[in-house]
Amino acid sequence: MTKMTLKINGSDHTLEADPNMPLLWAIRDLVGLKGTKYGCGVAQCGACVVHLDGDAIRSCVTKVSRAEGKQVVTIEGLSKNNDHPAQLAWQQLDVPQYGYCHSGQIMSAAVLLREKADPTNQDIDDAMAGNICRCGTYLRIRKAIVLAAELQKKTVKQG
Amino acid sequence: MFWRQSYRKRLSNKGDPGKIRSMKKQPKKLISFNIRAATALTFIIFITAVIASAFRKKEYDPTSAVRFDKINRDSVESAKAFLKVYSVLMSPRCMNCHPAGDVPLQGDDSHLHTMAPKRGIDGKGVYAMKCSNCHQPANTPGLHTPPGNPNWHLPPADMKMVFEGKSAHELAKQLVDPKLNGHKDKKKLIEHAHDGLVLAGWNPGDGRTLPPMSHKEFNKAWLTWLEKGAYAPPKAH
Amino acid sequence: MNNKQVSRRDFLKASAVSGAVFSLGFYLPGSANNAEIISVAEAENYGIELNAWIHIETSGKVTIFSHRSEMGQGVYQAIPQIIAEELEVNLADIHVVFAKGNLKRYGSQNTGGSSTIREFYKILLNLGASAREMLLQAAAGSWGVSKSECYAQGGYVFHKPSGRIESPKRLHYGQLVEAASKLTPPKDYVLKKRSEYKLVGKPLLRLDTPFKTNGTAVFGMDKVLPGMLYAAVERNPRLRGKVKSFDDSQTWKIPGIKHVIKVKMVVFDTYREGIAVVADSTWAAMQGKKALKIEWDDSGFEHLNSEEIYKRQNLALQTQEGLSFKSQGEASEIISASANKIDVVYETPYQYHGCMEPMNCTAYYQEDKLEIWGPTQNPDMVQEYISKDMNIAKEKIIVNLTFLGGGFGRKSFMDYPHEAAVISRQIKAPVQVVWTREDDATQGPFRPGISYRCEGVIKDGKIDAFKYRMAGQNNMHWLTGKKDAVNGSTSEGFLKPYYETIKNLSIRDVPFATPIPTMWWRSVYASTNGFAFESFMDELAADAGRDPLDFRRAHLNDERLHLLIDKMENVSGWKDKKKGEGYGTAITECFSTTVGEVVKVSRQADGSIKIDQVWVVMDCGWYVNPDTIRAQIEGSIVMGLGAATMHEVRFIDGKAVDTNFSTYQMPRITDIPPIQIHIMENDEVAGGVGEPALPPFAPALTNAIFDLTGKRIRKLPFSLASV
């Protein structure tokens, strides 16, 4: 057990954990943020994606020790008011069905939108093929990312 | 003679493979020892002249000795050694990250990586699909988990170094062409056998097969191939 | 709007503080068909518990209970959307609360069979209308005017004749709560016509979506109780297996381990044993589970391989007539006598449900009382089995519904809540049992893999005789323990109007059992039967030399079905097929809804088959939310694609061997064809929408591949890369 401080969604959380514990379980069980989901435990499905210094890492295979001294952002911290362009687009197109995978889907999409303001279909494939959705909402995810890119442009203009 | 030296060294370690492995952690030292041994004992006269020129540039550079060594050329031995090298390079542990397309391969059957991550400009993936998002600095324990390395990546987009689908002849030609091999001269090629990612092939994580020979044997074949002139096997191979 | 768990008692307690509350629900003396709408006062008179579906507080806050589980199919949206239509409140002003499991109060809460809307929509409309009428009556009374002069809109009652249009006399529902709660529900009111609907039939946004975009939706695994521990269980990999002995010495070396105990869980008529590791975090429990060394006792039952299962099933189809589900005319005789009969076998694989949220359940047992929080589709069954097995009175078992991270039938089962309850009772603490993905993938119950033998004879371009036999495990055998009954689901998926035109017809079930547990999976038997029925229909059409849609049309004397086929033909460009294109079709019925699909395929340069387009035409009668339906159809096609081209649970030595998504690949965003959806407009009785689009996909796809290549695919799954 090691004492460590994690910076999650802008706040410091001091916890005592096995440094080998995956970041996923530290976030869920020790910090108590339940929006990040366990789906497969082997980086196959993407339900556990969080941002680590801006990258869409799979928290189920990332040791908590790797996150020390870095910025962790979970779905709860992606925006203050559930209004990141991806979140808004997801809401406007009613993307989720049972919704378990969508924390991860949105976190992956957010990185795509940051790195490519105008994603093509190919970009969407390249960014999102790592996230499984058992409800099969993929067609809507594709549409929502296009919409989110538009919303993002408007925000940038207004901002 | 080179191998005799090496064998003696191993005996002095009382055959402890752990010690041999620990030597591999300092690849540069090992190489300089190996090369020094090979060159000094086999071609001592010729070398004397070359050393001088090597020192003029910077310091003692045994690889340049190999490069310019005409006496040691042996197209049959070299090509034969390359076939061994080739069997390693075409094993899933090497080929999977040297794919023909822009998506790496996966598994012992070298299927397309199931999440279809893309190479990207630097070979480190794109957007939400960067290699290190899943591939950690070390192997993740368990079956079907991502193997790890601090520097996990594909060759970059401007130097794809494709292995998949290449014949032995093609691959040998490609490996010695600096325009296709990542601008590597022979020295860098020799060193590359001890690159962290190359070595990762022999530490593949749970459930994955090893390359068809040990790293030591591979390194021997690799050096033999290069030393003896880096000949490509005939096209039929 | 909130998604917090609120018990009715808590709710009423809170309401008592804030003032009066108007509650209306219904009494279910038997089935949903004779539900009776009642008020609180009447409920007290009857001496029954009111299900209190609608609550209106003096503040005007409207709360509607959802008695069914939300697993993505949209019931969280649909129930309020229906009630609000007749109640005349804005959807945005409604708070939705999941009702706890209570069979007496809500009737069956088993969220399966695409049943919520089709069974309950009429009650819900009447409930909304009754409440509205009572509020109107209360307002009319307080104004001293006739009720007919009043109307309701947006949570207010207005008086038509008074005031100007822009400011008519009005009362907020909250102001009417006290008076309305003293009234008796009326009998004489008129439900709206479909053309008058403002909410029903509209593609309104779902109420639960915002919770699912910021991580606030509480799924089973997100429940936290004070002092709660986490458990992971290493269960015998074979259903009937027991624990012989175990060594937990390595487990105890892991920090955070609290208990290591032997547990069991009920699986139908038997128990599966395992060792539970209870710890202070999920991770520690999972590590502790990995470190266990267990010797299993697997005696007394067969350990089968997949090959052996299919060998036996297929042999049974060749040697046994089986039980008759429906027989008319002389199908067997005609087929035996025919020299030109078609006689083929279709095989469908075992599948697992693959919910993204692995199975999990939270339980707290204290002093003969048990409370459960979990993603369950079937609180009734959970109460029933646990009550029986743990000897706790049903009413002492409280089942709280959470959002489900997928159900697909798997979460209609009692095994995982039972196990959580057993652990909690043993450790005397609240516990959350989390299944690993590997547990989830390998332990079943699975969709049965079924073999079908289809025989038929064509005469004068039409079906002269049709014989169909299935051999595969029967879910009802597992559920009821009756191993010799004919499988009532034998014809599931088949269009019943065929019975009229195919005079010589025999539909049969060859009973077959293995020790591998099976149960419902999205669209149940239609998901496999449909492949056999509709592939065979295509083979018969080809044998008759007829267009597959015309052939079906010729055998269906049913106007609704003809309209559906016309629509399929028109939207898909069926008649304008170009060179290099393969078109295939299939039509199945499932849970009172008929779906026709057309798939277009072509061959890629690398030899693989590409699905260029899927067209879906659904006739589900009366419906609530067309956007939810579209979402369900899209999802059904994607799940059907996985089921047809990727998925097979393989058994070796009695154990499922595919443990994770690495070898049980899920369709990804790169695999999805464009899908065009059409919903038939009519006033027929509501059918299900969550499942019926799945069954026709596989046969429409393989029929399209036959059209393109001449190759008939009779075994699922197959690979699109190597047809």
From TrEMBL, chain A:
<dbReference type="InterPro" id="IPR036010">
    <property type="entry name" value="2Fe-2S_ferredoxin-like_sf"/>
</dbReference>
<keyword id="KW-0411">Iron-sulfur</keyword>
<dbReference type="InterPro" id="IPR002888">
    <property type="entry name" value="2Fe-2S-bd"/>
</dbReference>
<protein>
    <submittedName>
        <fullName>(2Fe-2S)-binding protein</fullName>
    </submittedName>
</protein>
<dbReference type="InterPro" id="IPR001041">
    <property type="entry name" value="2Fe-2S_ferredoxin-type"/>
</dbReference>
<dbReference type="InterPro" id="IPR012675">
    <property type="entry name" value="Beta-grasp_dom_sf"/>
</dbReference>
<dbReference type="Pfam" id="PF00111">
    <property type="entry name" value="Fer2"/>
</dbReference>
<keyword id="KW-0479">Metal-binding</keyword>
<dbReference type="GO" id="GO:0046872">
    <property type="term" value="F:metal ion binding"/>
</dbReference>
<dbReference type="InterPro" id="IPR051452">
    <property type="entry name" value="Diverse_Oxidoreductases"/>
</dbReference>
<feature type="domain" description="2Fe-2S ferredoxin-type">
    <location>
        <begin position="2"/>
        <end position="78"/>
    </location>
</feature>
<dbReference type="InterPro" id="IPR006058">
    <property type="entry name" value="2Fe2S_fd_BS"/>
</dbReference>
<dbReference type="GO" id="GO:0051537">
    <property type="term" value="F:2 iron, 2 sulfur cluster binding"/>
</dbReference>
<dbReference type="GO" id="GO:0016491">
    <property type="term" value="F:oxidoreductase activity"/>
</dbReference>
<dbReference type="Pfam" id="PF01799">
    <property type="entry name" value="Fer2_2"/>
</dbReference>
<keyword id="KW-0408">Iron</keyword>
<keyword id="KW-0001">2Fe-2S</keyword>
<keyword id="KW-0560">Oxidoreductase</keyword>
<dbReference type="InterPro" id="IPR036884">
    <property type="entry name" value="2Fe-2S-bd_dom_sf"/>
</dbReference>
TrEMBL record, chain C:
<dbReference type="InterPro" id="IPR008274">
    <property type="entry name" value="AldOxase/xan_DH_MoCoBD1"/>
</dbReference>
<dbReference type="InterPro" id="IPR006311">
    <property type="entry name" value="TAT_signal"/>
</dbReference>
<dbReference type="Pfam" id="PF10518">
    <property type="entry name" value="TAT_signal"/>
</dbReference>
<dbReference type="InterPro" id="IPR037165">
    <property type="entry name" value="AldOxase/xan_DH_Mopterin-bd_sf"/>
</dbReference>
<dbReference type="Pfam" id="PF20256">
    <property type="entry name" value="MoCoBD_2"/>
</dbReference>
<dbReference type="InterPro" id="IPR052516">
    <property type="entry name" value="N-heterocyclic_Hydroxylase"/>
</dbReference>
<dbReference type="InterPro" id="IPR019546">
    <property type="entry name" value="TAT_signal_bac_arc"/>
</dbReference>
<dbReference type="InterPro" id="IPR000674">
    <property type="entry name" value="Ald_Oxase/Xan_DH_a/b"/>
</dbReference>
<dbReference type="InterPro" id="IPR012368">
    <property type="entry name" value="OxRdtase_Mopterin-bd_su_IorB"/>
</dbReference>
<dbReference type="Pfam" id="PF02738">
    <property type="entry name" value="MoCoBD_1"/>
</dbReference>
<protein>
    <submittedName>
        <fullName>Xanthine dehydrogenase family protein molybdopterin-binding subunit</fullName>
    </submittedName>
</protein>
<dbReference type="InterPro" id="IPR046867">
    <property type="entry name" value="AldOxase/xan_DH_MoCoBD2"/>
</dbReference>
<dbReference type="GO" id="GO:0016491">
    <property type="term" value="F:oxidoreductase activity"/>
</dbReference>
<feature type="domain" description="Aldehyde oxidase/xanthine dehydrogenase a/b hammerhead">
    <location>
        <begin position="214"/>
        <end position="300"/>
    </location>
</feature>
